[in-house]
């Protein structure tokens, strides 16, 4: 069913219960917080004002962004910094009616600059507990390996995570995609899966369909991050559709990093029409100009998504989550109730 007006569409998106499955917590560091933490920790940053920081967020590809993203996280020093960062994200998505989030963090981005693994994860986990207690938002934590570093480094990071394994739901693979295929990390993913962790990987963001095949066949992923370039290979589309592999698609990220030239060219609607289990996510919201609902809204507007599309996307965000079956079923019923109330 189509919406009677853009305002009606906006209201529908604003209120529908949803989950976020692709969010790098370090990518939710707003320039205001960057300045506040720099001051709190006595760190010099190479920007004179919040406006100057925002102006620097003009990227022509993934690497452009990553350079500034790793620089930005340098202000994160204490457990309280990681707590404040994570809590600010939860408070923000609470206003978007997100009720569940599966959060990535990049431990190597911190340990490499001398911040203890425990400092980062303790702050993030404390905020996750408080978000559930005070906002009713449940969450899971996914530890990503930086693919521009070696597999030996990833294995050492997995080892370092041993005391926290009960609190980490899965492992992921992020950072510079081109030249760092999933095959480089086959051993560490096999080890993580043997430990009972879920596996996800960024693939097909800039990299070719071959990288998506490798993520499926060699890393044995449970969920695919991005996956845009899968559409270039009809056999791959069939595989993703037949297995109902969830794709965590990030439209405003794709626009910012020039994966698409224009949101009207974005493949999200095509993915849904092909029967793929696509979801909408924000990736690094402070860098790409929008949180969860901004992504839904901009994409719905550009691709003329109707109510069924929005409902499918919100439902997919729970179907693709690592929540238990009963909680997923409950969340889907919550969406049905919302739709009935909205229509009534
Ligand atoms: N790290 C943070 N955001 C990322 C993205 N979109 N792709 C790869 N690595 C990332
Ligand atoms: Zn990402």
Overview of this structure, please?
- With 344 residues, this protein is α/β, with parallel strands linked by helices.
- Helix content is 51%, strand content 14%.
- It is built from 17 helices and eight strands.
- It has helices at residues 6-15, 31-41, 50-56, 62-72, 79-94, 107-111, 117-135, 151-160, 186-194, 209-217, 234-242, 251-256, 268-273, 285-288, 292-303, 307-319, 325-343, and strands spanning 18-24, 98-105, 138-146, 170-174, 198-203, 223-226, 246-249, 277-280.
- An eight-stranded parallel β-sheet has the order 1-2-3-4-5-6-7-8.
- Helix 11 links the parallel strand 6 and strand 7.
- Helix 16 runs antiparallel to helix 17 (325-343).
- The longest helix is centred in the middle third of the chain and has 19 residues, at 117-135.
- The two termini are 14 Å apart.
- It binds adenine (ADE) and zinc ion (ZN).
- Residues 22, 24, 174, 202, 225, 283 line the site of zinc ion.
């Amino acid at each position: 069913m189509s919406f009677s007006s853009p305002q009606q569409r906006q209201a529908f998106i604003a209120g529908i219960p949803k989950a976020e499955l692709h969010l790098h917590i370090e990518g939710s560091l707003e320039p205001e917080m960057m300045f506040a933490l720099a001051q709190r920790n006595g760190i010099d940053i190479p920007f004179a004002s919040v406006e100057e920081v925002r102006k620097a967020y003009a990227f022509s590809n993934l690497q452009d962004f990553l350079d500034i993203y790793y620089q930005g996280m340098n202000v994160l020093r204490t457990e309280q910094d990681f707590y404040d960062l994570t809590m600010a994200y939860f408070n923000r998505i609470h206003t978007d009616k997100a009720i569940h989030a599966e959060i990535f963090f990049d431990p190597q981005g911190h340990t490499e600059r001398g911040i203890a693994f425990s400092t980062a994860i303790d702050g993030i986990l404390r905020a996750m507990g408080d978000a559930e207690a005070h906002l009713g938002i449940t969450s899971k934590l996914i530890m990503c390996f930086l693919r521009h570093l070696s597999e030996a480094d990833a294995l050492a990071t997995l080892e370092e995570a041993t005391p926290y394994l009960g609190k980490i739901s899965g492992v992921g693979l992020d950072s510079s995609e081109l030249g760092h295929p999933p095959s480089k990390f086959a051993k560490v993913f096999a080890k993580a899966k043997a430990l009972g962790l879920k596996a996800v990987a960024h693939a097909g963001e800039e990299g070719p369909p071959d990288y998506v095949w490798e993520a499926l066949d060699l890393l044995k992923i449970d969920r695919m991050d991005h996956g845009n370039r899968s559409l270039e290979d009809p056999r791959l589309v069939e595989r993703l559709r037949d297995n109902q592999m969830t794709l965590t698609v990030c439209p405003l990220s794709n626009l910012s990093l020039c994966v698409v030239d224009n949101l009207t060219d974005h493949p999200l609607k095509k993915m849904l029409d092909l029967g793929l289990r696509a979801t909408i996510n924000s990736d690094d919201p402070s860098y790409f100009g929008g949180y969860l609902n901004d992504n839904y809204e901009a994409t719905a507007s550009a691709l003329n998504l109707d109510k069924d599309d929005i409902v499918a996307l919100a439902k997919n965000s729970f179907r693709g989550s690592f929540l238990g079956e009963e909680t997923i079923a409950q969340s889907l019923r919550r969406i049905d109730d919302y739709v009935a109330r909205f229509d009534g």
